[in-house]
Amino acid sequence: FIIPMLFVIYFYSKIVKAVVSHEKELKAQAKKMGVDSLKQKKEGDESAEFKIAKVAITNVALWIGTWCPYAIVVTIGLAGSYSTLTPVVSGMPSFLVKTTSSLNPLAFAVAHPFYREALATEIPCLGIGRKPEGKEGKEGVTEA
């Protein structure tokens, strides 16, 4: 458990460091050119690289959060304390680990702006994203 976790943390931290370095290089280049930014974006928008880094960090957190309970249960079993390992205690971490395969794609999907917009349109009660404007008036319109 520890060795794969260290690999995951190491390689995802490299991704985040590369993103931060790239952002610094872009700011330095923009400063040399005498502009505020090389990107055409609205104030407060995040760069695509920064969004990717956030998704990477989220995936690492999900991976650690789902595998830690499983590792704890296995360690309890290796220590010989079988009385604390009821079927529910030993089954829940296993179930949590198996749901990881569906959580990672969900984290990527929710990070995508078009997916969030579609969710806001189709299921507005979730409160994810902005609801597109101009859709309210179409229901009451009839053609002659």
Features:
single chain; mainly alpha; flat
Strand content: under 5%
Structural class: mainly alpha
Helix count? Answer: 4
Outline type = flat
User: What's the total number of strands?
Assistant: 0
Mean pLDDT: 75
The Rg value, from CA coordinates, equals: 23 Å
Low-confidence runs (pLDDT<50, min 5 residues)?
136-144
SSE run = HHHH
Helical residues, percent: 55-70%
| Major sheet details | none
For the terminal residues, how far apart are their CA atoms?
68 Å
Structural notes for this entry:
It is a single chain. This protein is mostly helical. It is built from four helices and no strands. The protein has helices at 2-33, 48-79, 87-111, 113-122. α1 packs antiparallel against α2 and α2 runs antiparallel to α3 (87-111). The model is unreliable at 136-144 (pLDDT under 50).
State the gist of this model:
By secondary structure, the chain is mostly helical.
Could you give the topology of this structure?
Layout: H1 2-33, H2 48-79, H3 87-111, H4 113-122
